[in-house]
Specification:
By secondary structure, the protein is an alpha+beta fold. The protein is built from five helices and eight strands, in the order ααββααββββαββ.
């Protein structure tokens, strides 16, 4: 992805990588000192990941737990802050362990600098995730 890509283009590209289960390529979109935050994380879950390596460790096994099929509802909104977008989306797929459907709404506030994610605040509802059959152990919804 070129460094001059817009934040929205970079974000759409990141979703394609998640659908392709290309987690190392997805992690490569992060700045070395990028920060990912989960303001609504349930107890026992990380609220803040600092640095690309921490993000990589968190996401490493994601495809083993959630098989994403698509993002049928995606809205990317520009903000008045340069390089920052707000994303509203619905992710759909299945839980690998059980085969049960997975469907979850997200809102994210994402900042991009020099073609890399530098800040990603992920506002997802852990109660809704539990209703899909996901559990909260380890580093990703299972």
């Amino acid at each position: 992805m070129p460094a001059h890509a817009s934040p929205a283009e970079l974000y759409r590209h990141s979703l394609r990588l998640l659908l392709d289960k290309s987690i190392p390529a997805w992690v490569d979109l992060w700045a070395a000192d990028g920060v990912m935050e989960f303001p609504f994380a349930p107890p026992g879950w990380p609220r803040r990941l600092e640095g690309r390596e921490a993000v990589a460790a968190y996401m490493r096994d994601y495809p083993d737990h959630i098989d994403l099929h698509g993002f049928p509802e995606l809205r990317i909104l520009d903000t008045t802050e340069a390089g920052t977008i707000v994303v509203e989306m619905r992710a759909v797929g299945r839980l690998v362990r059980t085969g049960d459907p997975f469907e979850l709404d997200y809102i994210a506030v994402v900042t991009v600098r020099d073609g890399r994610f530098t800040s990603y605040r992920d506002y997802w509802n852990p109660l809704a995730a539990q209703e899909t059959g996901a559990t909260f152990t380890g580093s990703v919804a299972r």
